[in-house]
Amino acid sequence: MPENNFVVVDGAPSPLTLDNLDQLNADNGSNIYLTSVDDITTNPSWLNGVKPDGSGKTNGATSCAVIVNDHGSGLVDAFYMYFYAYNWGGRILGQNVDDHVGDWGREHTMVRFQDQQPQAVWFSQHAFGEAFTYDAVEKQGVRPVAYSGNGSHANYATTGKHDHTIPGLNLPAGPIEDTCDQGTLWDPLLSAYFYSYDANSKAFTAYDSSYPVAWLNYVGKWGDEQYPDSDPRQHKILGIEATAEFTSGPTGPEDKQLNRTEVCPTSNDAICRVQTALGP
To answer: Measured between alpha carbons, how far is 128 from 112 in angstroms, rounded to an integer?
Structure first.
């Protein structure tokens, strides 16, 4: 249900669907949270999402949106936006941190093309990420391979442990680690919506008229708002905000710098460097 400051939005469309979600923008939309009806601490079954079948398809769940931005002059960016029902942020000193409903858009990959030839791949990782040349990354056929962090869904070009304590710096070990391996294969293109994006008008157009479009314009959050300290479900280590067990759901694809100049988005004032070999 849509909520603003933990109060249900009055007059919201009912039922709320991907075809009318953008109507929430008219009522202070950026402060609206799509809040789960279930208490997530009871582990409702939908928290686990849909496991891909033997072919890599998520049956009954459209779990990816592919968004193509044609910059002109042969330069094209193809974004692969992945949706996960729940984010498990990991543990610090035995406590879960950064758990939230919805993990959407923040975790994505992007392939940059020049004159129809792939040049570079961006792997989002929480607040920042990494970029590599297309030639450097692992591939199945011609398609780049990304490894999703266990629970957190950050995207990496290699398996193993990845410390992300310092945004933009991927180290093999540290206090806040993601772990990924060659687990279940997921082919997001087998169950996806496909769109083009016009940067001048900020308009999305579906490649198939059956695909919903309005939801891409929604500017609110995809998940619960961070539970207040007064909520018995919320915990923090020594009251430190950065260690909150439950945090707010993320914004969607429209907020992910779809018209970026460099392969990397502008984030944390970091310099975008496209690496030519795999590594931290």
So the answer is: 17
Delimit the domains of the chain by residue range: 50-209+226-275
Residue 140, strand partner residues: 143
Question: Between the CA of residue 193 and those of 67, 111, 168, 177, 178, what are the distances in Å?
Answer: 9, 17, 29, 31, 28
- How far apart (Å, rounded) are the C-alpha atoms in residues 157 and 159? 7
Predicted local distance difference test score (pLDDT) of residue 167: 64
Q: Which two tokens stand for residue 229?
A: 């300290």
Q: Supply the pLDDT for residue 17.
A: 96
Q: In Å, what is the CA distance from 224 to each residue of 33, 78, 231, 267?
A: 6, 29, 13, 24
Count of helices and strands (H, E) across the chain = 0, 19
CA–CA dist 43, 228 (Å, integer): 20
Per-residue confidence (pLDDT) for residue 105, from 0 to 100: 66
**pTM (2 d.p.):** 0.94
Report the C-alpha gap between 35 and 19 in whole angstroms: 18
Low-confidence ranges of the chain (pLDDT < 70): 105, 165-169, 175, 267-271, 280
∠ CA 58-60-64, rounded to 5°:
50
Collapse the DSSP code of 148 into the 3-class scheme (helix H, G, I; strand E, B; otherwise coil) and give the result: strand
**pLDDT value of position 201:** 96
